[in-house]
Amino acid sequence: MNQIHDYKLIASDPDAVAILSKLLNNPDNFTSGSELSSILGVSRPAVWGKLEKLRDQGFKVEALRNRGYRILEKPLQHNAQLLEYETLAKGCAIPCLYFPEIDSTNSEAERQISYGRKGPFAIVSSHQSKGRGRLGRDWFSASKENSYLSVAFEPNLPAKDLQAFTLWAGIYICRALQKLIPQASLQIKWPNDLFCQGRKFAGMLTEAKIDADCMRSLIFGIGININSNPQSYPDPLKKTATSLQALSGTEYSLNTITAELIHAIEHAYEYSILGNPGESLAKAWSPLSSLCGQSVNATSAQSSIRGTACGIEESGALLIKDATGAIHSIHAGDVQLSK
Ligand code: BTN
């Protein structure tokens, strides 16, 4: 039975996005009220009203008589119009639905598809009450300094290897974030954890609906710790998790990071599900892998294998060499560094 949810959706205001596009693409110069009023097709007092609303949302807008407006500061917290502006500015046309609070962005993406919304679209939230992790685990989602998002696609194509898609998404995400955080080396722990300096800062969860071998929906979710302080995390995570700010000392815009992620996920989908990445997964993975050459223990419902991680196959399976020299392909399960 369908459950009715009343999570608040903050839709972006197209006029506000148009104002941001004009002002942020021209950050050092003033744009006159009459130019904004002709772009929007509304009166100058209406433009003023829109700018006041942006001020209420944390934008610092300078206004000078006879010159016009320019934006001096943008909010670092999630903001529906800024998120849309930033994704569009990257050439990514995936619409974003922003929910300040939600149970799980993956669950909301599923619900939106069941209500008839067509993919691709992104669900973004600042707080999840039932964030889901891999293998039925919970995902700590209580910090408004982090971002929780899911991108939903409707491939309607024969089911391709989903594991490779998650790995490609991790690769594109790491490459995009590494440009913003050059001081720390970002890594991926097979199959779905983003790591840095031995601590996890993001987790990915891919869920799909497949019927008669056709992939109807593909929902890729990621939770990423951005500006949160690891000391505020629940006890078991304090020592194992980190955030981008803790790693770099820089406070990031949640909108910029979220837009980068959506863009990277779009690339992963276009290249690995719709087309061909044009590079080998094993080769792209190798410089980013946190496990290569390490002693590991891989456990699944069926078995446990101890050995040295030595790369991945093109399918995305992890390769482990055991003490006898035999190589095992691990397709699913949990991998830990051996003590
Ligand atoms: C893991 O490391 O176990 C995967 C964690 C995935 C968490 C993200 S947060 C956004 C999306 N919504 C969820 O409920 N889970 C994923």
List keywords for this structure.
339 residues, SH3 type barrels, eight-stranded mixed β-sheet, five-stranded antiparallel β-sheet, 31% helix, binds biotin
Could you walk me through the main structural features you see in this protein, from its secondary elements to its overall organization?
The protein is α+β, with helices and mostly antiparallel strands. The chain is 31% helix and 26% strand. The chain has ten helices and 15 strands. Strands 3, 4, 5, 6, 7, 8, 9 and 10 form an eight-stranded mixed beta sheet that branches. The protein has a five-stranded antiparallel beta sheet with strand order 14-13-12-11-15. Strands 1-2 form a two-stranded antiparallel sheet. Bound molecules: biotin. The site of biotin has 21 residues, from helix 5, strand 5, strand 9 and strand 10.
Could you tell me the strand content as a percent range? 25-35%
How far apart are the first and last residues' alpha carbons, in Å?
Answer: 47 Å
At the fourth level of CATH, the homologous superfamily of the largest domain is: Bira Bifunctional Protein, Domain 2
Number of domains: 3
Shape: elongated
Element string (H = helix, E = strand): HHHEEHEHEEEHEEEEHHHHEEEEE
Q: What is the CATH level 1 assignment of the largest domain? A: Alpha Beta
